[in-house]
Amino acid sequence: KASDLDKIKQFVKNNSTLQNSVYFGKEKGKNVIMFHLESFQQFLIDYKVNGVEVTPNLNKFYHDQNTLAFDNFYNEVGQGKTADAEMMLETGLFGTASGSAMVNYGTSNTYQAVPAWLDQQGYTTAAFHGDVASFWNRDNTYKSWGYDYFFSKPYYKDADNASYNIGYGMKDKIFLQDAAKYVEQLPQPFYAKLITVTNHYPYDLDKQNISIEKTTTGDKTVDGYVQTARYLDQSFAEFLNWMKKSGLYDKSMIVLYGDHYGISENHPAAIAKLMGKSSVNKYDLANWQKVPFIVHAPGLQGGVNHTYGGEIDVMPTLLHLLGVSTANDVQFGQDLLATNRKQVVPFRNGDWVSAEYMKYGGNYYVTTTGTKINPKEDPRVKEIIEQTQAYVNKMLTYSDNVQTGDLLRFYTPEGFKKVKKSDYSYKKSDG
Ligand code: GP9
Ligand code: MN
């Protein structure tokens, strides 16, 4: 019912942060290019195999003076994996406790998503993906989010060439070359999301695209990861060069994010080898959930920011950079650039990381040191941990209430024009 929203709105309001005057509105009117780095983990940044950087181009971009990067940024996905990442980034709502919210609710629910907000700022919005439109129910969900365009596989001239495909769709380099032809035609300012796929388990790559040795953990499902990550790095570099040549680089805010882990926790021995350790514990595995979140724009005050946050926090961060207030939104993130944020990162299963402590796999640790703690031994610690857990549980439950009850149909924030799904069609017409 509509009244179910009242306490949720109050919770969201209590969570709202102060604007950071250095960054709020700093990128107003810029094009936004969201670059989805499939299965890309933070540890890959500056990582070397036998003395060789795996991702030299991303590393350079990461350290650029106009790049703002977050090195305590976690993926917060559940079973929806990619779909959950997209859901959080575009709507500020978590994926659901089980299944994929994009699949189960994306068609019918009402959302107030980033594309719709930006549409009202005069943006053209488009998503790009080199596979079938129906994967993760993107074709329906994107209508609910208000995407003007969705360029899926049939739109790309090279899509039918078998040798141009591998794994989950078109090879990233080819996909991005073809996508660029559409990106350059979008009326500006635009918001474009490019979903890469090649760096996805099982990390298959054709010989000609292999340019770095495999790792030697001995775990066959793990050792190819750096090869497809390297390919993704090169794909990004090619696209970046094109952006520079086309002039878009100077007029755009480029955002990169890793959607979730590439190497699952079911490979602790291999993870230990990659980290140069004899073994890994739950603390290491929590850190393993870090993914990159990187924002670049000409003139942006860059640096590596150590705030604790995650995918749920992206929507307010980006909208605020673009000068769009989220004060009236029902969303669960906190601007990563706000100085009074809570720095609590909920995982989908109820575990969490905060700037002070973390709970992971039933264990508690001091976040910065990895010291294992028993909350029962210290009443002060126990209280903080209980409060944090209550906050995390509430946030996940409220988000689930919004998703499963389609509660946003009862609420239209001030200044928001409702999305009419029937306004959109992504079918490729002939000719
Ligand atoms: C498929 C791609 C992969 O389109 O996004 O999804 P994932 O398996 O990573 O959730
Ligand atoms: Mn994914």
TrEMBL record:
Localization in the cell: Cell membrane
Domain of life: Bacteria
Pathway: Cell wall biogenesis; lipoteichoic acid biosynthesis
Chain positions recorded as Mn(2+) binding sites: E38, T82, D259, H260
UniProt binding sites for substrate: H200
Stretches assigned to the Sulfatase N-terminal domain: 30-324
GO terms assigned for molecular function: metal ion binding
UniProt keyword annotation of Lipid biosynthesis present: no
Active site positions: T82
Membrane-topology descriptor: Multi-pass membrane protein
UniProt entry keywords in alphabetical sequence: Cell membrane, Manganese, Membrane, Metal-binding, Transmembrane, Transmembrane helix
GO cellular component, one term: plasma membrane
Family, as annotated: Belongs to the LTA synthase family.
Protein name in UniProt: LtaS1_2 protein
Organism, as annotated: Weissella cibaria
Gene: ltaS1_2
Full protein stretch here: 227 to 657 of 734
